[in-house]
Amino acid sequence: MTGISRRRFLASLAAAIPLNVVVRRAHAAAVRHLESDPATLDALGEAILPSQLGRAGITRAVAVFRDWGKYYRENAELLHGYGTSRLRTTGPTPVTRWTSQLDALDSASQSKHQRPFKALTVAQRVDLVRDAVKDERLDRIPNVGDAKHVAVALLAHFYASSDAADLCYEARIGRETCRPLALESRKPLPLAGSAKR
Amino acid sequence: MRRRVVESDVCIVGSGISAAMVADRLARTTTARIVVVEAGDNTVPLAQRAAARDRFTRYGENPWGRDHLEGYEIEGPLQSRSMQVGGLAMHWGAVTPRFSPEDFKQRTLYDVGTDWPIDYDELDPFYQEAEEIMGVAGEQGPPELDPRKRPFPLPPIPLTYNLELLKDWAAKSAIPMWSQPSAKNSVAYRGRPQCCRNDTCSPICPIGAKYSPDFTWNALLASKRVEIVPRTLVRKLVLADGGKTISHAVASSFDRPDTPVEFRAKSFVVAAGYVWSSHLLLLSAQIRLSSKAFGRITTFRSQWIHQAHSGTKRIPLFETKTNLERQLRNFGLRFEPVGRKKTSTSCSSARTKSCI
């Protein structure tokens, strides 16, 4: 290349492309990565989600989480409540960060156990996740998009769900789902398999 | 300068729940031509609310889209930014308790606050009328505590299991407990379905079982009883007859900012919300006041305007400087005429574009 350095050429090329286009493409690429290689995220779900959900329940919870990331919108206006004029918007897509972190879990697994993350036992996966989040402040469950690590995000996503509320109360409450008024005053039925507790 | 003139018999400034109640009554009881001016945009149609709710529950996104005016933010916890057809009651939880009789006599009974110029019995039929428009579900409490004269239009929403337990405990302690009235359909009502407990009444009901003012507006628009002019901000009520009447309202359209809009009507109703009604009245009285001051007089003004006087033909403005000074003094504020800027309250020092 004559008259212009490669670095300057790339810098000018980058400047010519609007940032939001770059971000959108990065988000789309990260979503594709999550969808085309779901095994690590599925394995993470098995390691950190409640075992009471069973394999099918965990698969479903992870799939819903993956969808959450897929349909995330940056810079969307958040609800502003009564008595405040402050407007807030959603932040940058967390999905690009999540894919990097899943790759990092896989790399750590290869280094420590010479196997991919998905091939580890649940206990081994949990150890790696503990290592990955050891510097995080985990005194509360954050909003999904604000979670620093994909493992925390997945946990936060599940615990915000109606299924999680049911699991916590061991009852079929069905929070935030359409349900008949006539049943409102009755004690919610127990979850299947929770009768002993 | 070109201007657009909109003429009517009654011009309602604002399209929130107070405005909807006034318009509904006028449409039923008169043949008046009614024009409603709303600063915000049209609201999200019912058909799109399930999807909007989904985005809210998953991501916390505002289900009402662009329901505020850009550039009209103010500092502090004063203003709810909800500007759209339907106003703040598009977000509300639809809980509709009445004031109790003693609320009207706070000064007499407890030596605090201000007695109202009307009492519970005078207001009772208007409460009832509004409850029937909205479709309020409820059960009457003990008459000495809940002296309504006629039953609620809808049966009560059943108590939840938890509240049923609480009611039993309360009964054992001889504490009266009855369900809270709310404008949610315990049975289908006026074309809207029965509530099915989606748990997101505030900010959004996905099926329209919760009353919101857009239902009233849709019905009035369908019967051609009102004209709604959205995206138009009324900036001033121009007085005539030495300040006794309003000749017209001057407004600005966000779509055609170069063409002022003039609303001419025999009667005006100011129902623009607890901040903007006060704001408009102060603008119209041509005084200078900081945005902080609006909130301090807001409680008084909005109570007076919305609860007591919004159904009457004219809203009295501050008529004289002396009256205004007295009212401001009640709230620890100082009158500052136009042209005499004080650093502490001037527009230039206030971090707001809503300053007058």
Give the termini separation of chain A: 73 Å
Question: Helix and strand string of chain A, N-terminal first?
Answer: HHHHHHHH
Count of extended strands of chain A: 0
| Residues in β-strands, percent of chain A | under 5%
Residues in β-strands, percent of chain B: 5-15%
Which descriptor suits the 3D outline of chain A? globular
Uncertain ranges of chain B: 287-324, 330-356
* Overall body shape of chain B: globular
Largest interchain contact: A-B, 32 and 40 residues
Helix content of chain A: 40-55%
**Rg from Cα of chain A:** 21 Å
Could you explain the architecture of this structure?
The complex is a heterodimer of chains A (197) and B (356). With 197 residues, chain A is an all-alpha fold. Chain A contains eight helices and no strands. Chain A has helices at 6-16, 19-36, 39-48, 54-70, 95-113, 122-132, 150-159, 162-169. The longest helix of chain A is centred in the middle third of the chain and has 19 residues, at 95-113. Chain B is 30% helix and 13% strand. The two termini of chain B are 23 Å apart. Mean pLDDT of chain B is 82; it is low at 287-324 and 330-356. At the A-B interface, loops of A face helix 2 of B.
